[in-house]
Write a structure and sequence with these properties.
Distance between the termini: 15 Å
Structural class: alpha/beta
Order of helices and strands: EHEHHEHEHEHHEHHEHEH
Low-confidence stretches: 241-249
Shape: globular
CATH architecture of the largest domain: 3-Layer(aba) Sandwich
Largest sheet: 4 strands, parallel
Length: about 250
């Protein structure tokens, strides 16, 4: 019998928004090399959506979500988590504060994206960034791209207001058909501007793009999936590679 107390436990800080966290957990399962239930990563999730808006706090000095996020991390720590993944791009603005005050290491979504770009052989050139105004202003994606020799292309102000932000809002309102059309157009415009790839840097945007088959998906980097892969890599390093059974059980 497996001693679950000895297994490294992943903490998932979700709720920002609820569908995005569910999408992350689905991709965590999909990215895990497993042949049976017991091969999957043990995790505990905190999904309380009653938390101040992240972009409003960054852009307009609105109520900080930090206290509520720290409450979630405290609950994850109490449950035995040894590392945290945040299922929200914009929330990484508070990454250093959360690590320092929360007392747990936190995998950074932008580092995970850079690793996925490298895996695809993209180590130079222009990368499109599709995210909230808060994520754009926070600058952590741009800083990490620059550190790896990558240039960042952002949506125009008009495209941000007419395509990107409405697409995110449509996912939150569960209007996925509308979100899909808006997000596709936003990605296409970044590609037309010279981007080699477009990072879907809001956890709602992969949900929008994935709603239906489309020609631009292959040129997108799903930050949510990148974070899931980083969690798998962390777990394998912490517990050793999965030993596959001789046959499925």
């Amino acid at each position: 019998m497996t001693n679950t107390r000895s297994l490294p436990l992943l903490g998932v800080l979700g709720g920002m928004g609820p569908l995005a966290a569910a999408d992350f957990l689905t991709k965590l399962v999909a990215e895990t090399p497993a042949m049976r239930d017991q091969d999957h990563i043990p995790y505990v999730a905190w999904g309380v959506p009653q938390i101040p808006e992240r972009p409003a706090a960054i852009l307009h000095g609105g109520e900080s979500p930090l206290p509520q996020m720290l409450r979630g991390i405290a609950a994850l720590k109490q449950a035995g988590a040894s590392v945290v993944a945040i299922a929200c791009n914009t929330a990484h603005y508070w990454h250093d504060d959360l690590v320092r005050q929360g007392g747990l290491p936190i995998l950074h979504i932008a580092d995970a994206v850079c690793d996925m770009l490298a895996e695809r052989g993209i180590t130079a050139g222009k990368i499109g960034l599709l995210g909230t105004d808060g994520t754009v202003k926070a600058g952590f994606f741009q800083q990490r791209f620059a550190a790896r020799g990558l240039d960042c292309i952002l949506s125009s102000r008009a495209d941000q207001d007419q395509l990107v932000l409405p697409a995110i809002a449509a996912v939150k309102a569960n209007d996925l058909p509308r979100a899909h059309g808006l997000a596709l157009e936003a990605v296409a415009r970044l590609l037309d501007s010279g981007a080699q790839a477009v990072v879907l840097a809001c956890t709602e945007t992969p949900v929008a793009i994935d709603y239906a088959d489309n020609p631009v998906k292959a040129r997108c980097i799903d930050a949510t999936r990148a974070l899931a892969r980083a969690c798998v890599a962390w777990h394998q390093a912490a517990s050793g590679p999965v030993t596959q059974p001789s046959k499925p059980l």
